[in-house]
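Trying the structure run again after the queue cleared.
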Amino acid sequence: MVLRPHGYETVVKGKNGFVCLVQRGWAAGIEEPDFWNPKMRAPICFNAPAARFNVPLTIKRTQLILAGRSKAEMVEDIKAAFDKKELPALESGAMCYMLSKQGHLNDHDGHWRPHLMFFAPLMDPAAWGANLPGSQIIGLTDREDGLTVFLVPVAKWSDGTALAIDVH
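Done. C-alpha coordinates:
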Protein backbone atom coordinates (compact mmCIF):
# COMPACT_ATOMS: atom_id res chain seq x y z
CA MET A 1 0.00 0.00 0.00
CA VAL A 2 1.12 3.56 -0.59
CA LEU A 3 0.12 6.81 1.06
CA ARG A 4 -1.55 9.22 -1.34
CA PRO A 5 -2.95 12.68 -0.53
CA HIS A 6 -6.34 11.14 0.35
CA GLY A 7 -4.98 8.17 2.33
CA TYR A 8 -3.53 4.71 1.81
CA GLU A 9 -4.40 2.72 -1.28
CA THR A 10 -3.44 -0.71 -2.55
CA VAL A 11 -1.07 -0.63 -5.51
CA VAL A 12 -0.16 -4.33 -5.63
CA LYS A 13 -2.40 -7.09 -4.29
CA GLY A 14 -0.48 -10.06 -2.95
CA LYS A 15 -1.60 -13.66 -2.56
CA ASN A 16 -0.29 -14.61 0.89
CA GLY A 17 -2.28 -12.23 3.13
CA PHE A 18 0.72 -10.03 3.97
CA VAL A 19 0.27 -6.27 3.64
CA CYS A 20 3.24 -3.94 3.38
CA LEU A 21 3.14 -0.18 3.78
CA VAL A 22 5.11 2.71 5.23
CA GLN A 23 3.64 4.04 8.46
CA ARG A 24 4.03 7.71 9.32
CA GLY A 25 4.43 9.58 12.60
CA TRP A 26 0.77 9.37 13.59
CA ALA A 27 1.13 5.58 13.86
CA ALA A 28 3.23 6.23 16.97
CA GLY A 29 1.73 6.51 20.42
CA ILE A 30 -0.11 9.72 21.15
CA GLU A 31 2.50 10.87 23.67
CA GLU A 32 5.50 10.01 21.50
CA PRO A 33 7.58 13.07 20.56
CA ASP A 34 7.74 11.86 16.95
CA PHE A 35 3.94 11.73 16.50
CA TRP A 36 4.06 14.74 14.14
CA ASN A 37 7.59 14.10 12.83
CA PRO A 38 7.45 14.37 9.01
CA LYS A 39 10.70 12.38 8.72
CA MET A 40 9.15 9.30 10.34
CA ARG A 41 8.93 6.44 7.84
CA ALA A 42 8.35 2.94 9.11
CA PRO A 43 8.35 0.34 6.29
CA ILE A 44 6.44 -2.60 7.72
CA CYS A 45 5.03 -5.89 6.44
CA PHE A 46 2.17 -7.39 8.45
CA ASN A 47 1.25 -11.08 8.27
CA ALA A 48 -2.44 -11.80 7.62
CA PRO A 49 -3.62 -11.76 11.29
CA ALA A 50 -1.68 -8.55 11.94
CA ALA A 51 -2.92 -6.97 8.70
CA ARG A 52 -6.55 -7.60 9.60
CA PHE A 53 -6.00 -5.60 12.81
CA ASN A 54 -3.31 -3.03 11.95
CA VAL A 55 -4.23 -2.02 8.41
CA PRO A 56 -7.79 -0.85 9.27
CA LEU A 57 -6.36 0.95 12.31
CA THR A 58 -3.63 2.63 10.22
CA ILE A 59 -6.18 3.63 7.57
CA LYS A 60 -8.55 5.04 10.23
CA ARG A 61 -5.78 7.02 11.97
CA THR A 62 -4.65 8.39 8.59
CA GLN A 63 -8.20 9.41 7.63
CA LEU A 64 -8.63 11.22 10.93
CA ILE A 65 -5.28 13.03 10.62
CA LEU A 66 -5.96 14.02 7.01
CA ALA A 67 -9.38 15.31 8.12
CA GLY A 68 -7.61 17.67 10.54
CA ARG A 69 -8.56 15.90 13.78
CA SER A 70 -6.39 16.74 16.79
CA LYS A 71 -4.47 14.04 18.64
CA ALA A 72 -7.08 14.04 21.42
CA GLU A 73 -9.94 13.80 18.91
CA MET A 74 -8.16 10.99 17.09
CA VAL A 75 -7.80 9.02 20.34
CA GLU A 76 -11.50 9.53 21.11
CA ASP A 77 -12.53 8.53 17.58
CA ILE A 78 -10.35 5.40 17.63
CA LYS A 79 -11.70 4.37 21.03
CA ALA A 80 -15.27 4.87 19.80
CA ALA A 81 -14.53 2.83 16.66
CA PHE A 82 -13.21 -0.06 18.81
CA ASP A 83 -16.22 0.21 21.15
CA LYS A 84 -18.63 0.09 18.18
CA LYS A 85 -16.69 -2.86 16.67
CA GLU A 86 -15.91 -0.76 13.59
CA LEU A 87 -12.28 -1.80 14.03
CA PRO A 88 -11.42 -5.49 14.34
CA ALA A 89 -10.00 -7.13 17.44
CA LEU A 90 -6.41 -8.31 17.58
CA GLU A 91 -6.01 -11.93 16.45
CA SER A 92 -3.65 -14.57 17.75
CA GLY A 93 -0.50 -14.97 15.69
CA ALA A 94 -0.26 -11.33 14.63
CA MET A 95 3.29 -10.28 13.74
CA CYS A 96 5.24 -8.17 11.31
CA TYR A 97 8.67 -7.62 9.82
CA MET A 98 10.54 -4.31 9.93
CA LEU A 99 13.68 -5.14 7.99
CA SER A 100 14.21 -2.15 5.68
CA LYS A 101 17.28 0.07 5.84
CA GLN A 102 15.10 2.85 4.43
CA GLY A 103 13.14 3.51 7.61
CA HIS A 104 13.45 6.43 10.01
CA LEU A 105 11.57 5.43 13.15
CA ASN A 106 12.36 8.54 15.18
CA ASP A 107 14.98 11.23 15.61
CA HIS A 108 16.60 9.40 18.53
CA ASP A 109 17.11 5.96 16.93
CA GLY A 110 17.00 6.77 13.21
CA HIS A 111 16.37 3.56 11.31
CA TRP A 112 17.20 1.53 14.45
CA ARG A 113 17.81 -2.11 13.49
CA PRO A 114 15.99 -4.91 11.67
CA HIS A 115 13.42 -6.60 13.86
CA LEU A 116 10.28 -8.66 14.09
CA MET A 117 7.28 -7.48 16.07
CA PHE A 118 4.72 -9.71 17.75
CA PHE A 119 1.34 -8.33 18.83
CA ALA A 120 -0.40 -9.68 21.93
CA PRO A 121 -3.26 -8.60 24.21
CA LEU A 122 -2.40 -5.97 26.79
CA MET A 123 -0.09 -7.54 29.39
CA ASP A 124 3.08 -6.98 31.36
CA PRO A 125 5.93 -7.32 28.82
CA ALA A 126 8.04 -9.08 31.46
CA ALA A 127 5.67 -12.06 31.10
CA TRP A 128 7.49 -12.76 27.81
CA GLY A 129 10.92 -11.87 29.20
CA ALA A 130 10.93 -8.42 27.64
CA ASN A 131 12.74 -5.43 29.11
CA LEU A 132 14.56 -7.59 31.65
CA PRO A 133 18.30 -7.20 32.32
CA GLY A 134 20.22 -8.90 29.51
CA SER A 135 17.12 -9.50 27.37
CA GLN A 136 17.21 -8.48 23.71
CA ILE A 137 13.40 -8.48 23.62
CA ILE A 138 11.74 -5.09 23.99
CA GLY A 139 8.13 -4.91 25.12
CA LEU A 140 5.87 -1.90 24.68
CA THR A 141 2.34 -1.50 25.97
CA ASP A 142 -0.07 0.44 23.78
CA ARG A 143 -3.07 1.23 25.97
CA GLU A 144 -4.75 3.28 23.23
CA ASP A 145 -4.98 0.27 20.93
CA GLY A 146 -5.20 -2.28 23.77
CA LEU A 147 -2.15 -4.37 22.94
CA THR A 148 1.41 -5.21 23.83
CA VAL A 149 4.10 -5.20 21.15
CA PHE A 150 7.25 -7.29 21.43
CA LEU A 151 10.24 -6.25 19.33
CA VAL A 152 12.82 -8.93 18.59
CA PRO A 153 16.00 -7.69 16.88
CA VAL A 154 17.40 -9.84 14.07
CA ALA A 155 20.86 -9.86 12.50
CA LYS A 156 20.10 -9.13 8.81
CA TRP A 157 18.36 -6.48 6.77
CA SER A 158 15.83 -7.35 4.06
CA ASP A 159 18.56 -7.26 1.41
CA GLY A 160 20.47 -9.98 3.28
CA THR A 161 23.27 -7.76 4.53
CA ALA A 162 24.35 -8.16 8.13
CA LEU A 163 23.57 -5.58 10.74
CA ALA A 164 26.67 -3.42 11.21
CA ILE A 165 26.45 -3.34 15.02
CA ASP A 166 26.55 -6.13 17.56
CA VAL A 167 22.99 -6.99 18.63
CA HIS A 168 24.04 -9.24 21.52
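Residues 2-153 form one domain. Worth checking whether this holds up in the mutant runs.
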